[in-house]
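Handoff note, outgoing to incoming analyst
You'll be picking up this chain. Sequence as last confirmed:
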Amino acid sequence: MGVAVRPTAPRHWFRLSIPLVIFTLLLLYLSARSLGARSGCGLGAQACVPGGTAPFQVRQESGSLEAPERKEPPCLGPRGMLGRMMRPFHASLNPEGDVGLSPYLAGWKALVEFLTPLGSVFAFASKEAFTKVTALEARVHGPDAEHYLSLVAMAAWERRAGLLELPGAAPRDPARSSGSRTLLLLHRALRWSQLCLHRVATGALRGPDAGAQCSDAYGVALGPHHPWLVRQAARLAFLAFPGRRRLLELACPGTTEAEARAALARAAGTLEDVYNRTQSLLAERSLLQLA
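Most recent structure output, in case you need it:
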């Protein structure tokens, strides 16, 4: 009988392949560990976002997801130019639907401080506005101060006391104008400021320049109430108006143009809120024709 030959080749190949498989698995393990260390993802992690931190932070005490807050530019803070203006104006909108006169005037003072460096047309408007703010403050802090806490209280008191002017009749002495008439003039100037700042903040990059946009705003808010000579002088003054970039730098220094635009738009929105409420209160009391 012949001796049977066993098939040794497959078994020999199997023995040789075991070290190769082990070496390959070891390489895969080391590669995975190296990648996990670089990306911050461990092998035992259940969820991982490579390349940096996760887009949301988990609050462990509640288990809810919280998006990171975007830092507010300094110009909107308590020491920023726009922030100092927005806060008192916002505070003037009291919960009863009225307008508090003291914070309203404080907002106007901050607005004047902001507008004065912006050019001759703003300097003139700011001077006029400051004169009216001072006149109304004299009533807010005067002997009849209890009647000048808010717009509604002031209008009611001046109507009862016979202090209101006839519609369209200008007083001989502007310094003796009623508080309601003085507020109406400030109210119109606030509309111009709000429209101007809003158009500067939202205007297209290749659209009309800031001078043209604020000139148009003047034609809407103040021009109809000014004589022809004043309107012509205003048009000339707007020719020397600073450019949009300069206005944004003054409004919100140290930020990008996009951030400055967003901050200025927020400030204009606050002025619009104050204007809309004041407009409604004056209209309800038939006070829009005092001047």
